[in-house]
Design brief:
171 residues, mainly beta, Neuraminidase, four-stranded antiparallel sheet, globular
Length: 171
């Protein structure tokens, strides 16, 4: 993942990597696969956010969603084959319940950049980020319908969130 739509794939545990054609010149920031064939990549430019989808292990990528706005997307995470989330600029949180065919905007309660999203189960998820409005640690317990800000006074922007055995890991 990187500048200019670069995607890399390994099939031998990282010993060798091959470049894949994403079909976009936009920067890509995050990738998530729901199985060996189906995956999503998000990114964008200062003019639009973009979500790409592959159904053949990354050989071909198609635009699954293009916002037409200036909301670049930084992270994507799928709970299962149908339900996924993408987050980005200006507090953007998007959700799909049909495998990326349609995406709806959710209210995050912030205008900060949201950099990472991760769900521990179908209902409980976290988003982290930051900006001029301060640092954000957002939590939902109802599948993204409502988000509560758990920010704890740190001044450092948070760029990643991940759980191991339901223990929150942020960086």
């Amino acid at each position: 993942m990187g500048d200019g739509g670069t995607l890399l794939k390994t099939t031998n545990g990282g010993t060798n990597w091959v470049a894949l054609s994403s079909g976009t010149s936009n920067d890509l920031f995050s990738v998530c696969f729901t199985d060996a064939n189906t995956g999503y990549a998000v990114g964008g430019s200062c003019h639009e956010g973009i979500i790409l989808k592959t159904t053949n292990g990354g050989t071909n990528w198609e635009v699954a969603w293009s916002s037409g706005t200036s909301q670049c997307l930084y992270s994507v995470y799928f709970i299962n084959t149908n339900t996924g989330f993408a987050v980005g600029q200006n507090g953007t949180i998007l959700k799909t319940t049909n495998g990326g065919m349609n995406w709806v905007a959710l209210l995050s309660g912030t205008s900060n950049e949201l950099k990472s999203v991760y769900f521990t189960d179908f209902n409980t998820g976290y988003v982290v980020g930051g900006g001029l409005g301060g640092v954000n640690i957002l939590k939902t317990t109802n599948g993204g319908t409502n988000w509560v800000d758990l920010s704890n006074g740190t001044n450092d922007d948070l760029i990643s969130v991940f759980f191991i055995d339901a223990i929150l890991q942020m960086g």
